Amino acid sequence: MITVLTTLIRDPEVRARYREQWTADLDGAAELGLSRRGLLLGIAVTCLRLRFTTGKAHEMLPIGPLAIALRHLGNRGQVLVATSLSALFLLGGALLLIR
User: Fold this and answer.
1) Integer CA distances (angstroms), 87 to 74, 84, 92, 99, in order
2) In this structure, what DSSP letter does residue 28 have?
3) Which residues contact 40 (CB under 8 A, 6 or more apart)?
4) 7: which DSSP letter?
5) Which of 34, 48, 68, 70 is 20 to 30 A from 13 in CA distance terms?
């Protein structure tokens, strides 16, 4: 069953590594009292995810006040200065409220 499921994995080296690992997992499942059906379901889901993911990292877009500053100032150095000053002003305001 593992051989059939691992055919979904495109990379042959990755396929061989997972096949070896999952075969050992299924062999040791009885000792730990784990269900073979549950392991096979997890293996099937993992094979499908490996088949249909691109492996490319997705760029996260900045949101919130930092994104606004970055959009308006453009330069990351200027954004860092603006962020630092904002944090200092916020800290100063909090200290004034505490005293």
Assistant:
1) 19, 5, 9, 19
2) H
3) 1, 5, 26
4) T
5) 34
